[in-house]
Amino acid sequence: MVDYSYKEYNENMARAIGRELAISTKASVEICNYIRKRNLQEAKELLKLAKELKKPIPVRRFTEGAGHKKGIGSGKYYVKASSLILKLLESVEANALSKGLNVNNLIIKHICAHKASTPLRYGRLRRRQMKRTHIEVVVEEKADKKSKASIKKEEKAEQKKEIKKEATQGKKESEKAEEKKQESKAGAAEKEAIADEKDAKSKKEAKDVKREKVPEPKNEEKKTDPKPKKEEAEKEDPKK
């Protein structure tokens, strides 16, 4: 397991390390200071231009022997160091891609150069030591920065949507309340009609019951025939 000096590593990051690179530590420090906090694609383009001797890398710390370059002051091209660091950036890009990060939104969060071992060169130059460097890179995925105007527009649009939702909800609630009122009125009218029908039926039933209870009149012959009785009495008593 490789031990990195950068300890704040999380899921949105990818990293790579180069061990015992045969480049100058001073040149590596200048390149790292130049591309740190930059977008990964931008840093790769700058190193390609420096490798092709089209755009120099500004020198700020180790300025000894650095000539003046137009627009930047002292600068150098660092062809060999630029090519090896470019390969390291391609390696960390591949690691980020394997993790599923968006390659276009990667920013070089951390890059540093450490002096490695300096063994003696092989051959007759026994007092001359090799230049070797350790370089580690950490990139982080960051979301696209939106302008303040776009953020304000989105906030206004969200506010309008919320206002529309509230208005529609209020209308729906009022409509529901009116429907409930109408339903309650209709139900009351139906109940009254049913009650009236029941009252009418009950009255009719009461009348029918009364008619059934009225007694039938007696035979009219018995009431209206007193004369035959008198005639019978006269026949029995002719003297009278």
Structure in a nutshell:
The chain has 240 residues and is of the alpha+beta class.
Q: How far apart, in Å, are the first and last alpha carbons?
A: 163 Å
What is the CATH-assigned architecture of the largest domain?
Alpha-Beta Complex
Structural class: alpha+beta
Count of runs of 4 or more consecutive helical residues:
6
Strand order of the largest sheet: 1-6-5
Task: Describe what this molecule looks like in 3D.
- The protein is of the alpha+beta class.
- It has 2 domains: 13-121 and 128-141, Ribosomal protein L22/L17 (Ribosomal Protein L22, Chain A); 148-212.
- It is 52% helix and 15% strand.
- It has 6 helices and 6 strands, in the order βααβββαββααα.
- A 3-stranded antiparallel sheet has the order 1-6-5. The protein has a 3-stranded antiparallel sheet with strand order 2-4-3.
- β3 and β4 (73-76) form a beta hairpin.
- α2 (40-51) runs antiparallel to α3 (79-98).
- It is rod-shaped.
- The N and C termini lie far apart (163 Å).
- The mean pLDDT is 83.
SSE layout and pairings?
Layout: E1 13-21, H1 25-35, H2 40-51, E2 57-58, E3 68-69, E4 73-76, H3 79-98, E5 106-115, E6 133-141, H4 148-213, H5 220-224, H6 227-236
Antiparallel strand pairs: 1-6, 2-4, 3-4, 5-6
Helix pairs in contact: 2-3
